[in-house]
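Sample intake sheet
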Amino acid sequence: MAEHLVIRLPEHRGDAASWIAVDSSGTRISAPETGPLELAAQGIGDREVIALVPAADVLTMSVDIPIKRGPRLLAALPFALEEQLADDVEHLHFAAGSRRDDGRLPVAVVARHLLEGWLADLADAGIRPLRVVPENHGLARIPGTLSALVAEDRVMFNDGDDEEFVLQHVKPSDALALAGVLDDQGGAATEASQHLLVYCEPADEQRFAHDWTALRHELASVDINLLPDGVLPRLAVTVATGRGINLLQGAYAVKTQTGTLFRPWRYAAMLLLGLALVGLAGKGVDYYQLSQEESALKAQFNAIYREIRPQDNREVIDPVATVNSVRRGLGGPVAVQVFLPSLQQLGLAIQQNTEAEIEAISYRAGVIDVRLTAPDVSTLDSIQRIVSSSGRFTAAIQSTDQVGDKVSSRIQIREAGA
């Protein structure tokens, strides 16, 4: 499972950053730490880096645009959102997220000089992030649930649907009023039941105690989860699973990610390569042994052939053709018509006595010798009867030996009357 080092950049450049190691399921691997980026770089190792940037500097919007993905989409976003933005789009960077169920596309908008400054700070510390994500995207979107994260005079909010924003120096109830959940008098704006899930540090639970009480009177439920280790572990859990818009798109996209993509598979690749080498080595050994056996058989055949035809000093290249030539000279048949039909009859016998196993088969001068093992003598008798029942062949049990709980036997098969 891939591991990530999630680094949260400070709101003001030059302040201390914070970081934590998690795996791709969001499970914490280390405790959160705080310090300069150079110190964070020492904990990277083989981990992929995800940088969280200040949410107040990134605007999250959504747009209904038919273009699906790629450079054409990134080129069209500035024109689609231009009327909703106060700044000149030429000075802004646009990044697209995953299209939502309603067809709308979430878009993160950030000033180019801010993004370039964050990347420069990371590069100066020797850090190359795989993803750069607005920190408020670490607040998971839960359909049908209002979610808020309160920390450091900021309220991060999403309604689980299309609304998502960050406010500074406000109360949680102010964020709900901006989202249209509460009216101007602080009452519920709709009759529909609303469930609020809150993450906050212990100090903020006490600081907004009256606000929580008021919200519980207006909403169906308010569930407060304390963050004793700060907000970073909560944000890291979400972004490590791949959620959030990656700002590194278009001109800022990571140029090559081949090493990153294959890094989780490197050990499997090494094992596969090792198995392939072992397999090739085994094939090489088999080839060598077979070559040696072939040479020995050729030498043996040539020796016997010299005894039959001492006047012929040529080296035999094709033993089969040489044997057929000898047979033609002696007036015998070119091909033996016994071996294959006898094997077919033996195969029928084995099919009906599947507990028997053939150990070896040899053929010489019209006689087939079969060595096999069977669970008992009655199985051997059955095989003998089935082979002989063809009328063309006769089978005779030559020997039987008890080997463990099985019977080892040798059966001879030949043509009937031979």
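Comment: The chain has a mean pLDDT of 86. The chain is about 35% helix and 25% strand.
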